[in-house]
Amino acid sequence: MSDIVLSAGVRSNLLQLQQTSDLITRTQTRLATGKKVNSALDNPINFFTAQGLSVRANDLNALMDAMSTGIDTIQAANNGITAITKLVQSAQALVSQANQTADTNVRATLASQFDALLPQITQLANDSGFNGINLLGGNDLTIVMNEDGSSTVVVTSFSDAANGDIGVNASANNWADSAAIQTASTQLTAALTTLRSQAQSLSSNLSTVQIRQEFTKAMINTLNNGADQLTLADSNEEGANLLALQTRQQLSTTALSLAAQADQNVLRLFQ
Amino acid sequence: MGLKVELKAGERFILGECLVTNGNQRTRLLIEGDAPILREKDIMTAAQANTPAKRIYLTVQLMYTSRDPRLHHETYFILMRDLVQAAPSAWPHVVAVSNHILAGEMYKALKCAKALIAYEKELVDHATRGANLRRGRQTDRKSA
To answer: What ipTM does this complex have?
Structure first.
């Protein structure tokens, strides 16, 4: 079984945001002089930097769709694993019924039901794809995070065939002897453990991508805001704005909720 | 390779979800693993966070020390938007902090947030000094 690896994507930053930051650093010296920039004629660099910010925000916006599709794909795989887990649990029920009887006819019936369940697991695994990518069927998922594709998140697939990875074999000897039932029982328990760990790693990957998506969304908003504001910067005014903001924040609910959050954190020990 | 922490007598620091207080002698500790570690001098309490940038620092610190950083993302963005609207030139610092959060490098994000506090102080000092200078000029003129 190959593990899901959410590789460099988590560590790699959104490249274009960094580029943006570099661009702004260049213009920062001009801002420090306290000059206002209202048109391209006043200060071409700031003006076009602001425009660049908007363009990049739009590029990011287009990538959001790809991220949503990626999340759907992971969710589809997760649903598949949930359904397979249920099938394995039904198989377990059959095994425990077989354990409770000594009647070989009953055992043979249960064994044939058991054998009928196994192909369903394979079919389920094959049907867990979304948009042509099936993480349970050997397709890797790549989610692109920036416009030139240099920053990506790769979710590697694992295959979940009934006789392959989850390692459950068809019933032996019609379950006439207890040893055969015991073997099936052991294999099923192991399969459940595997499935749980896969579901766990999928859901943690899912939340990682979701967090990143939400963060990017908020980042886009702020990029747009920044573009609007950059041309109006004036360091004297900024200082005054900050003082005003400081007063305003003291009265706002944000400061209250922040204090409440800090109170629930380990930080409370420090007071 | 673990992190070496040297503590003065009675110095405190946060390790994971615990507060560790040093006894009455100097101590040198070697800490391995990836639990959040925060020294006393880097810790900002809610009461101390009384400016926009300090509040951002506090939010990043909360993300660093909590199990689920997502809880604090919303607050972070509210504060960040306010700050950027008030002082657009703080952009490079804000972007640096955000990039580190995005990459999950919370300790580096905290360092950048510290730079943001310094920058904010610079701007505010500039504004108050400017106002004082102007006031000073007026009184000069009156006395003349």
So the answer is: 0.74
